[in-house]
Amino acid sequence: MRPRDNRLATNLGVVVFSSPLEEGAGRADQASLDVVRRLEAAGHKTLHAGAVDTPDKAVSAGRRLAEAHVHAVVMVAACWFEDYLAFDLIEECRVPLLLWSLPGIETGALCGIQQLTYALGELGIAFETVHGDANDERLARPIERFAQAASLHYRLRRSRIGLAGHPVAGMSDATANELALKRHLGPRVVPLDVRDLVRRAEQMPAETARQAWAALVGRVGKCSVSEDDGLDSMCMLAAIEEQIEKHGLDAVAIGCYPHLMGRPCVAASILADRGVPLACEGDVNGAVGQLILTLLTGQPTHNTDWLEPLDDGSVVLTHCGSGSLSLAEKPDSIELANVRLMNQGVCVLFTAKPGPVTLVNLVPHGDGYQLALLEGTAISTEMVFPGNPLRVRFDTPTETILAWIHAQGIGHHWMAGSGHVGQTIRLWAERFAGPGLRVCPGP
User: Fold this and answer.
1) Please, which residues bridge with residue 376 across strands?
2) Fewer CB atoms near the end CB (10 Å): N or C, the chain?
3) What would the pLDDT profile of 380-435 be if each residue is shown by its tens digit?
4) Predicted pLDDT at 299
5) CA-CA-CA-CA torsion sign (119, 121, 127, 133)
6) CA distance 112 to 313
7) Tell me, what's the pLDDT at 4?
8) Chain-wide mean pLDDT for the chain?
9) Segments making up each domain of the chain, as ranges
10) What is the rounded distance in angstroms from the CA atom of residue 115 to the CA atom of residue 122?
11) CB count, 10 Å around CB of 366?
12) Whole-angstrom Cα distance, residue 287 to residue 190?
């Protein structure tokens, strides 16, 4: 299977509005070039749709941007302009908007953006705003956050999540509301026949599996499982990869508990390095959370349960052992072992490396969905649970966080990604996702 692009590549359209009579209209063309240079210097792919001062130009620019499948449009105000120019462009290309007013006390650019924000609010069209010249360094962070959130919106609307089997019986928060998920967040669920998956794994060539298993064993510090279990894990990986290629999947959830426990765990570890998250226990919602974090960080994620608050104010989170080897703090201590409780399959056991982390919980809520976010710092830990223990310290007392979890009705699966990307996720959720996505207020 070819590796997936697991980091967002932003694609921004740029258009500059002006009205011919106004002071500052003459700077529109140069403003376009300056903004494009600024965005491209920051690593964003851009399409310059030019200066717009008539309805015909607005329609033409909108169609050009739509044909290029831009993730968002940066609307720059060189001076005051008629708001209907934006309306006409939006009808041709409806994507997230960044409204950028250039400085100038006589230009009226800020006034033009203010009147546009009123109109867009009345029309229910989401946007973000910045004010400053093209070289203003204060704009770097808000522009980057907007671009990432807009591109996340674009990717999620086109993503496909494979579901093999079903969520665990008695685990209501792991059940997906497929139509609400599609409507408000974007991903489409693709059903996979778990019996066919297992049958296909049994048909995989033994020699290919043996080579892959030997390569994996050579990367870890200890192997405590039989070769038969190892070969079965490699065959499961190959069967899952076939489904990913066949259906163009961006993430997968497998109903592993209890009968398949341990069998797809190594597949999850390896696929994470190829940009395709695999969630445990048939949790499609968790797979979407992992995909969000993977896209924003460009790195594999942890699939965890919140297990225990410790006396020092930290919390241990973990699952059975399906994390990417790249997440281990001590690579030479990684162990291949049978899954706990069932003593079968192969799990990858290690303690997680320290650093900043963002935790995401996503569950159905009424007719829509609910998103909860936490940011903290992972610290070193011991193997307190046979899996991939991740020990996190938060600024907020854990008793307060636990009370918040229970009061808000937050689920038990927390997906953890490297770095602090909560602000970008919140921007996407509050501005660009569907109105049925509720963001829990912070603890």
Assistant:
1) 357
2) N
3) 999 999 999 999 999 999 999 999 999 999 999 999 999 999 999 999 999 999 99
4) 95
5) positive
6) 50
7) 72
8) 96
9) 11-156, 159-439
10) 11
11) 10
12) 12
Contact 12, 74 (CB under 8 A): yes
With 90 as the cut, is the pLDDT of residue 70 above it?
Answer: yes
Main-chain phi, psi angles of 14, to 5 degrees: -130, 130
Which contiguous run of DSSP H or E holds residue 401? helix 398-408
Q: What interhelical angle do 109-123 and 84-92 show, nearest 10? A: 50
d(CA 22, CA 371): 45
N-term to C-term CA, the chain: 41
**Residue 346: burial class (beta carbons within 10 Å; 0-12, 13-18, 19+):** buried
- 357 pLDDT band (50/70/90 cuts)? very high
CATH number for the segment(s) 11-156: 3.40.50.10940
pLDDT for res 158: 97
Contacts of 415 (CB under 8 A, 6+ apart): 279, 286, 289, 290, 292, 293, 301, 302, 303, 304, 359, 360, 361, 362
Two tokens at 229? 């279990």
pTM above 0.90, yes or no: yes
β-sheet bridge partners, residue 371: 362, 439
Which amino acid makes up residue 427? L
Minimal CA–CA distance to 304: which of 414, 412, 172, 378?
414
Find all residues with CB under 8 Å of 136, minimum gap 6, and list them.
Answer: none
Look at residue 442 in the predicted model and tell me its pLDDT. 87
Q: What is the DSSP letter of 136?
A: -
User: Which pair of structure tokens corresponds to residue 116?
Assistant: 């546009």
In the predicted model, is pLDDT for residue 2 greater than 80? no
Q: Which residue in the block uniquely carries the two structure tokens 């969630």? A: 279
Q: What is the dihedral of CA 223, 228, 232, 234, to 10 degrees?
A: 50
What percentage of the chain carries pLDDT values higher than 90? 95
CATH code for the part of the protein at 159-439: 3.20.14
In sequence order, the 6+-apart residues with CB closer than 8 A to the CB of 48 are 14, 32, 33, 36
Residue 73 one-letter amino acid: V
Amino acid 420: pLDDT = 98
For 396, left (φ over 0), alpha (ψ -120 to 50), or beta?
A: beta
Q: Give the pair of three-digit tokens for residue 80.
A: 């005051």
Cα Rg, the chain, nearest whole Å: 24
Q: Which of 358, 367, 294 is nearest to 326 (CA)?
A: 294
pLDDT for 3 beyond 80: no
Contacts of 50 (CB under 8 A, 6+ apart): 15, 16, 29, 32, 57, 61
Residue with tokens 């162990």: 335
In degrees, rounded to 5, the angle at the alpha carbon of residue 149 between the alpha carbons of residues 108 and 300 is 155
